[in-house]
Amino acid sequence: MLIDTTSKTLLAMIIAISTYLIGSINEVVFILFVFMSFDYTTGVAVAIKDKTFDINKGIWGIVRKIFYVKIIIIAFLTNYVLVWTVNTLGMEFSYAKVFGYMMVIFFIAQDGISMYNNWRKLGIKLPIAFLKVFENLANIFNQNRK
After folding, report:
1. Residue 102's closest CA among 72, 124, 130?
2. Where are the alpha helices (DSSP H) in the chain?
């Protein structure tokens, strides 16, 4: 079966993007996936405990986590375009994946705060310093937001 040039080009682009993104996955991205799953499950546990569980809210929580991943993919692809553009101009750019990791750390901070609050609602006592770490991370990214 012959594949036309457009299909080959599209397939090559998908493979190139996938390879770049897979190369961007490291321990920090893995930690985000752990945080996302723990945040979701603690949120569900709180809803069950409070007898407020709603399947639509549960599905929406999953959709939100899927959008986290999409935003991170866009951030890593933005890095790629930026580095490619700078290199094409003959300049150097040493922050190859800064936007992608910035989003990963931002979402880790958000989910860390959410998990802390969920654990407290479940009656689990934690040191306030645990919360402060995530709040400080979140504040780094929110300093100039209005």
Report:
1. 72
2. 5-24, 27-49, 55-88, 98-121, 128-142
Query: What is the Cα–Cα distance from 24 to 20, expressed in whole angstroms?
Result: 6
Residue with tokens 């409070």: 50
User: What are the angstrom distances between the C-alpha of 26 and each of 17, 29, 82, 83?
Assistant: 16, 5, 21, 19
Q: What is the DSSP string of 106-137?
A: HHHHHHHHHHHHHHHHTT----HHHHHHHHHH
| DSSP symbol at 96 | T
pTM for this prediction: 0.77
Q: What is the pLDDT of residues 53-109, one digit of tens each?
A: 999 999 999 999 999 989 988 888 888 888 888 888 888 776 667 888 888 889 999
Tokens for 29, please give them. 């991205």
Going by C-alpha positions, the residue among 42, 24, 35 that lies closest to residue 108 is 35
Distances from the Cα of 69 to the Cα of 36, 40, 76, angstroms: 10, 14, 11
Hey, where are the domains in the chain?
26-142
